Amino acid sequence: MPSLSVSSLSEMQLFKSLGEEQLVQLLDRHRESSHQTDQLIVMEQDWGESLFLLRSGLAKVRSYTADGDEVVMSVLGEGDVFGEMAALDGASRSADVVALTSLRLVKLRAAPFSALLEKQPGFALALARLEASRLRDLNQRFALQSADATTRLLDALAYLARKSSTASDPQASIPVLAQREIALIAGLARETASRTLSKLRTRGTVAVAEDGSLAIADLDPLVRRGLLPAS
Questions:
Q1: Backbone phi and psi for residue 100, each to the nearest 5 degrees, phi listed first
Q2: Can you tell me the distance from the alpha carbon of 165 to that of 222, in angstroms, rounded to the nearest whole number?
Q3: pLDDT digit string, tens, across residues 82-98
Q4: What count of Cα atoms within 13 Å lies in the side-chain half-sphere of residue 176?
Q5: Which of 66, 67, 72, 128 is closest to 95 using CA atoms?
Q6: Measured between alpha carbons, how far apart are the two ends of the chain, in Å?
Q7: Are strands 214-216 and 70-76 parallel, antiparallel or unpaired?
Q8: How many angstroms separate the Cα of 42 from the Cα of each of 28, 67, 105, 158?
Q9: Which residues of 123-161 are buried (b: 16+ CB within 10 A; e: fewer)?
Q10: Are 94 and 47 within 8 A, CB to CB?
Q11: pLDDT of residue 93
Q12: 17: Cβ–Cβ under 8 A, 6 or more apart, which residues?
């Protein structure tokens, strides 16, 4: 993948309101890196003055309960930023970020990012919309904690599909992930997630490609469960 250019950055939703000079400012002394599946990128309680832009791949934001159980707070996809809160308020990182797939990252300096937020209302509004979208996703996932396994798994698959697509398409192809990861995102035991996924495949609701990637083939079950609006 070629190095991130000003024109490529300008095409990402978060940065569309910024001019060329401001984008150059953001990319000042940026660093790019590649990471493999399961690699820890950011550790909870670390200190950092940088933030990150995900160019490709998927990552998860996780924390742990007092009992040591892993909880996936959100999934990050292409064009998402993370680490921005610690970079802006000077506090320690609030969660781990771990690669779900192989991915490509851009490390940005916090100072120009913060300066542009103060001077560019459009940029600040775009970041606020991104944070609101994440909060909405988190609220829905927690609201489904008492739902049946099929509903929770369908919601998790649609969420992963949207994060795997720049068009936020719930029927986009989901990269090959360990079933444990899908189960964690759905809030299910791995065995329960495996049985439920097998059932959805048999019904034709979920399709599996030759490479093992998944896709939701039929959206009607999601609409009936209120996971998607009726068309």
A1: -85, -30
A2: 18
A3: 988 876 777 778 889 99
A4: 6
A5: 72
A6: 37
A7: unpaired
A8: 21, 22, 12, 26
A9: beebbeebeeebeebeeebeebeebebbbbbbbbbbbbb
A10: no
A11: 80
A12: 120, 122, 123, 125, 126
Q: How far apart are CA 14 and CA 123, in angstroms?
A: 7
pLDDT of residue 89: 74
Is pTM beyond 0.85? Reply is: yes
According to DSSP, residue 210 is labeled T
Query: CA-CA distances (angstroms) from residue 108 to 53, 96, 112, 139?
Result: 7, 18, 9, 29
User: 154-208: per-residue pLDDT in tens?
Assistant: 999 999 999 999 899 999 999 999 999 999 999 999 999 999 999 999 999 999 9
Using CA atoms, how far apart are residues 8 and 231, in angstroms rounded to an integer?
33
Length of the chain: 231
For the chain, percent of residues with pLDDT exceeding 90? 82
Residues 219 and 228: their CA atoms lie apart, in Å, by 8
Q: Give which of 135, 122, 139 is closest to 13, Cα–Cα.
A: 122
CA-atom Rg of the chain in angstroms: 18
Q: Report the C-alpha gap between 223 and 8 in whole angstroms.
A: 35
Longest dimension (CA), the chain: 54
Who wins on pLDDT, 195 or 2? 195
Are the C-beta atoms of 215 and 171 separated by less than 8 Å? yes
DSSP state of 13: G
The DSSP 8-state label assigned to residue 167 in this structure reads: T
